[in-house]
Fold this protein.
Amino acid sequence: MERRQAGGAASGSLPLTATFLPHSAAILLLLRRRPMQRLPLWIGFLEGPVFILITKTLRFSLLLHLPWIVEGGAALRGSPWVPSLEVAPSYRGAHGYGQDGAIWYRRCASTLSFYFCKKLLPSESFHRRISPVSMNCSRIQSVFLNVHKGQHEVGAVKGHDFVETWENDFVKRTSENYSGAGTTKRKELHGMTTLRALSGTWASQANDVILNTYEIKFICNVDSGNYSPFVLLTEARLDDDVANAEIELHLHLNKMVRSSVSPCGQIELNASQVAKSKLFHEFFFNGLFGKLFSHTKTPREFLLEDEKQFPWSSSYMYMLLPMESPVPTSTGIMKINWKEIDACISVVEFLRNIYSINCHRSSLTCSMSSYATKCEGTNIIHMANEAVYTQYIKGMVVLAVHTGRIYTVLDIMNNMCADSPFDDPGKRSKFNSFSHYYHQKYNIVLQHPGQPLLLVKQSHYPYNLLVPSTKYKDGYFGSSEKSNILVHIPPELLVHLNVSSDTLRSSYLLPSVMHRLESMMLACQLQQETCCIYSGHSISSSLILEAITTSRCSDNFSMERLELLGDSVLKYIVSCLLFLKYPMKSEGQLSEYRSWIVSNSTLHKLGTHRYLQGYIQDCPFDPRRWVAPGQISLRPLPCTCGVDTSEVPLEKEYWSEEASTVVGKACDKGHRWICSKTIADCVEALIGAYYVGGGLRAALSLLRWLGMDVSPEPVMIEEAKMNSSIWLHHLRGNEIDWLESKLDYRFSNKGLLLEAITHPSHQGVGNKCCYQRLEFLGDSVLGLLITWYLFQTHVDLDPGELSDLRSALISNENFAQATVRHNFEKHLRHSSEGLSKKLREYRKDVSEFQGTGDSMTSFAMPKAPKALGDLLESIAGAVLIDTDLNLDRVWEVFKPLLSPMVTPDKLELPPLHELAKLCNRMGYPLYTQVTYRGEQVVAELSIQLEEDLLVRHGCNLQRKTAKDQAALQLLKDLETRGISHAQYLSQRRQQDDNFCSASSVKICVPPKDMQIVRTNLQNVPECLLSLEPSPGSFLEESCQLNDLVKEISTSKLNEPDVPVFSLKKEKGGPRNALFELCAISKWPMPKFESTEQKFRTPIVLDGVTGFNSYTSSITLHIPNSGAINLVGEPRTDKKSSRDAVAFAMLVELQKQGRCIIKEPRLTYKV
């Protein structure tokens, strides 16, 4: 044997070496065992002679090269496949060996170590591993790589190429560093794509223009006033999907307005009309959603004075003008309401005159004195620009000359005048009267203080009307009726706007309408970039919009459903091509390459290459930041990114892994942070959208546009059939005919079916013919077909529930039950006694459950042999190849086999999954601790309720099953306390009592003296009590578990250190600190409640000016100490008010000695 040095010697250990055998694939790794360290023990079964490496407790290792090996009294023959290999009794159950060559894992460290070995060697190289391996993974990888290269050179390992030979086949790998790309941890700074549909230059030119017109009309479902139509004018012609869009706007619980867009041809405007339209736009939208006066100067400056230029960007240029009639004229020209536009322009001229006259005065006089002499009488109201009879006042649209805000008059307050006491709800007023207030606040001298005040409603506050607002982000359900801001104003401070209330009512809807239209324009622009057209029609822009919208937008749709579908489509397409293009590659090699192709890192690279990040909608619509062309933003967000262009370079300096990085919120230049994984998810969602809109052909076209050419050639299918036909001479009798009759499908190539039912252990055909490659293909086929079936059947199902339903249907357990239900396992060709035993036991268990009528769930049923699910998948792959990749035909065969399929109302989630969902919704912290007791896994799950700590234990050979046992018991405990998901109550059935017989419960309520409470030994799982490790055994040395059940306590048990927090100054710092404290202390999460109060005049709270005051209260339950209820100081926004009360709670907890707050001091302000 030739020995090669592969690594340096560690201190006090043997050199790390590898043994290279020219005619075998044996690998030796020697490493000295440290004190109290788990022993590595490897058994490798390779082609050629059998070599076993056993590391003992001494400072040497044994290499056994024997054709016959005796272990634990069982004779083992070294052969290429050892399906019936048994493990020594002392190690039985520590690690499993799948009868089909599958490897089962136990410890994290050994799994990581073995991962490298499995990546670098053929999947056939190691069939069994016993006990953990404690070695440096990088050294292991280096050794195995060097050895494998040497074996490859001499032909010891055949048919296995390195991954590097695959890389340039479909996706070009660049030299760029994509470490962390496609993960949730990494955030990236990206820009936003400019809308070409709203670009133009006409506004900056004093010329006649021809613009495209689109009518926007509104229809309300209740009779509560009319809505006047508006017309949208753009230079570019809008896509048909946008030009004929319908949008639902939700005003409150029972009131909804349907907005519809329709094209109305083109209109020509002369230079004068363009100038008037622009001035109207600037005045009207600044009066509604922006500002008309500068508040930084005294006296105030009117921003629409002569020669004042408002922002009209060439990349964002359109106009929204009121219409005179909802129907276009016979000539196709829209009847723009020039009367209302002229009325607004006359008000602009009036305001210019007032502020130009009073610009050098110390006080502002608004009322025109000529009205005092011309109009006398008790039924006359003197406005700022005219005198109006009282019968025409109600419903009038007015503008306040001192604030520039637009209001609607509700009533005349005959019992109040300017000399009446000034009312300021919620505050002690420092003004004697309204006259005193306006003189002190605005330096205005009223000319008619005896006139009755007008009660007006503020109409400029925008809302997001695209989604029903009955459910807020914090989960609170309640009325979404928009509260009105009502104020009293002297008439002489109001200018009459000759604009109908219907027009004003419609303008309130425009921000939401335009936001949705702009999103659809973005989707259409992406659609045009992909250039994918099929059979004379293109992919719907609504599908593309759904694919680029994340759940963070809180919209009625998101990419999650399409992402789930796209993931299955991509996996299927790649699997087909790999299967067909590489007929000599093993299933393990194909899976490895497929994993790289469909990885988030690869998809992220493809997406950023096509600048998909610029199209992603990743933030909820904030109507307060919406601006129309010519409007000044009231909430500017200056760019601090240091990037001058709209696009951000893909460089490391624009990456972040800080948890505090705010995702989604864009600055004024359009730069925003996006989670790296979101880009990969968007790629999958787009694949799903194109599959929905145009089938596989559309999806393949999109993949080519992205840079992934994965279209199979027809000749590859014929070659695959020919390769399988060579096994036909192994047919015996009519075994294939029986199976075909069960499938109700006749194969044109019987060799495919023979290959699909041949287990790797079968010696009759040889190890080259087995179902593993077809299983690789069938797994993706059934995954796509089932996902597509669910996508079409459950159109309104939540993405999370859809994913749960899909997981249940494509699980090995479901496939195994279908296999047994149709007796397919009787046709499985194998040579494994161990597998035969498992199949008999599983069929017996299934029969017993069917006989008792109990629910056959994955929790009550024993775990199905993996070979059963693999068999069904391999048959699906065979049918797919035999039908020339006809998915519809495959589904015709397999839909009856998989029926009846589970439905959402009958879906039983895994107990741990259901428990996690319940705790997340209820705010109860869930804690998990896993320990090992010999071959058994002991899982401890605990939930901290408001007063009680519920603890359950599960015990099983498998970690997941042990956790499910404990979780199932906790779910029952919570249900007895009336805590459960209503949707799960009817779904969860009574589980078999024997399933959870090895579980224990203890409700721990420690006394005030905080003594340790132990679980009663009579409730300890029997499997734990039966474990008696012998002195000096491997179990005793490695585990060192003195007690069977962990000590359970709450609060200050074992005197833990008091948590120390350093509050962050940004918004959310106190809340995050409080949440962290609750998690550390195992307390239930606090509950917040907020109340809002609105004011007619600006208020200042904690240095912040606003018109709203939010006061939040908090309730925190501390186990065994009761609840703490606090009310925080008012703030101008809800989040800041919750920060204020959270900080007050932290201060209170610090006083009680439960935490320590470091700098900044207790004068922290939010």
Observations:
- The mean pLDDT is 75.
- The chain has 30 helices and 36 strands.
- The radius of gyration is 37 Å.
- Residues 269 and 989 are 71 Å apart (CA to CA).
